[in-house]
Amino acid sequence: YQAITFGLTAIKIARSTSTETIYYQNISAILITKKWWWVQIILILSSGEQIHLGGFSKRKAKAIRSRFPKYKEQYIQATNEISEKTKEIIAFSEWIQEIQEGQAWFSRHDLEEILEKLKELAPVLRLPKKYFSDFENLHTPYTAIRQFSENPDHLRENANQKFISFELDAYKDYFDTVEKYPLTAAQREAIVTHENNTRVIAGAGSGKTSVIVAKTGYLLKKEFHTPDQILLLAFNRAAADEMQERIEKSLDVDITANTFHAVGLRIVAEVEGQKPALAKIAEDANTLKEFIQETIVALLYDAKTTRLVSSYFQSFFAPYESEFDFDDLGDYYKYVKTHGSLTLNGEYLKSYEEVEIANFLALHGVAYQYEINYPVDTATVEYRQYQPDFYLPEYDIYIEHFGIGRDQSVAPHVNRQAYLSGMNWKRDVHKEHGTTLIQTYSYQKSEGTLISTLESELLARSVKLQLIDPESILKKLNATNQFDPLTNLMATFLSHFKGGCYTIEQVRAQAKARGEKNQRFEAFLTLFEKVLEKYEAHLAEDGSVDFNDMINRAAEYVEEGKYISPYQCILVDEFQDISINRAKLIKMLNQQNPSYRLFCVGDDWQAIYRFAGSDISFMRKFESNFGFTETVKLDQTFRFNDKIEAVTTKFVSKNSTQIPKIIQAQEKSKQPQVILHRPEKKNDDIFIEVLKEISKRSSDSKNTILCLGRYNYLQDGLSWSIAIEEFKKFKITFKTVHSAKGLEFNYVAIVGLNEGQFPNQRT
């Protein structure tokens, strides 16, 4: 008995005692001859030899002969394809071998290019493995390529780990000596990581600038880039100067550290043929706030916009939250205290809604008295003397504002039955004694009808309502310092607005898309639009630009190809402070060169420049903004000890949206290093007591003290002259939080550590 089986590369002949394999390439033809009651199959080999196989039926023999050409043609076609790609397959496998040796960084961009090339070999590599059996020189390359294609990222990661190990050994002496102290393991890893996009997350005091300096030297030593191809960026002149000084001292190379503004100015000047003039109001934050305040004052005096300005200060002076949103009465009082309970007449009231009512009366020339005793003695065992919310002496009218919902509900922290009973009692008192009572309700504020309803009620009782003159309004605003919150908010909004290249229509559309129904937002935006018009007109008349204009214009010129970037590698310090337009400028510069490198160092835990336009999402969502990214964390700090680290990490980590990280302090301490000072007596001078405490603890070598405050004015409340006189061995400095960032002192004393102020809880 004999049987024939067709395989991919050969025919297998099974006999009763043996099996024989004959490859298609050795078979010229198959013939059949008829015998007595069966058919014989004859295989004609290329050598001329004939193999006779008997015992087949006529039908079976014909089927075998008809199948042979198809299998042989398929085999020949496959082997021809493999032959044509043999050199490419071997070259690709050699490249894989070279990459695996880790002699060069294998970037994701490189991988994507290689995978594109692999697509050309894919049809051949998808052929069954048996077709490769005749190609002994392809056995190993075929296996290597298949393993690579199954998990290319794994190969890339392994290759880069080898590269990092090689580089750490090769440049050990450099990393030991480039800075004052040898670099840490994490710093070294960050420096030799050479991905297109590298994000270095650095804890406070972990040596961010050292990494930037050493990275620059490494790039030059490796000859990855020349000095003119490297762009060093910092966010302010002082930081750029420090970086420049460190580079000159450590590397002795001619390379300039730049601010974003300097780069923007250079790009615009090169494209336009002259340097643009920088607006004076853009160079100083106080000058800008003065301009905004002067603009709002001018709008106040303009009859067309007087009511627009006055209504903002009347009803939208702070973000509104209903008492119903607070489970605890104390929390609600904290909110009111933090966000503004001061009326335009200079009184502190108990609720936002009462302040709004008082402001309306004050702005419309209606004299009122707040919580004065009712003229009839109502005090009982159950109730104290009745004090209505507002009394209008000129009209003998009382106003009571009740904190209830339309469904008679009350705030969670209020006893509903007692509150409703008290409401009815107050109403009965007015009925009994014939006094006029106007009632307003919290639900009217939520529905946006509080002031309009009050106005209707007052007019119905012949109360004269006329907006007071602008000069009187201005006096009230100045007397109660109402301008600062608005001008600060307006300046911050302006920075974000221009830094993000927005239009008023876009902002309104965003608010609408979020379902925003905030009347304060619309009131603010309407007022902002007027201020923006004046601001842009001022720049146009002055023939100048602000910093945001300069960055935006530079990014636009790069995007349009009017400026051709010479930079192949951009290194950015303090990246957590990046803004929308600065990020766009970086993107546009990089897009001109597909093999670019972007190396950014920052710490989202130290993001404190939101008011200046920074957007922390670029740090947190780095990869979605810039593309595939390698991230390295610097986890060792040299600035403070482990006891300070424990307290500060616990505090900062309350923000769950931040990038989680572990900070390890190099300096260990057995004793607590964070100390809270409380006055034992009312008249104790805490500042002097703190200095005495530091004096007990300090050595002569540790004599620098930073007095840290949220605002500059806090220095005025300190016994500064006494401190300087009594503690001459100390060098005592006062700084605000923002101006002190990045500095180091032996001791830090935080003053004004009051709720709502430090940290600032004002929205």
Describe the protein.
The chain is elongated and about 135 Å long. It starts with a strand and ends in a 13-residue tail after the last strand. Helix 28 links the parallel strand 21 and strand 22 (731-736). Helix 1 packs across helix 3 (139-150), helix 12 (306-315) runs antiparallel to helix 14 (352-363) and helix 22 runs parallel beside helix 23 (580-591). The longest helix has 43 residues, at 58-100. It contains 29 helices and 23 strands. The strands form 7 sheets. A 6-stranded parallel sheet has the order 9-8-16-17-7-18. The chain has a 4-stranded mixed sheet with strand order 11-12-13-14, with helices on both faces. With 763 residues, it is an alpha/beta fold.
Defining traits:
alpha/beta; 763 residues; 4-stranded mixed sheet
Number of alpha- plus pi-helical segments: 29
Number of strands: 23
Helix content: 40-55%
Give a quick account of the main beta sheet: strands, pairing sense, barrel closure.
Answer: 6 strands, parallel
Global Rg: 40 Å
**Main sheet: strand order:** 9-8-16-17-7-18
Estimate the strand proportion: 5-15%
Give the integer mean of the pLDDT values: 91
Straight-line distance between termini: 93 Å
Spatial shape: elongated
Q: Which ranges are low-confidence, i.e. pLDDT below 50, for 5 or more consecutive residues?
A: none
Query: Could you say which structural class the secondary elements and strand pairing correspond to?
Result: alpha/beta
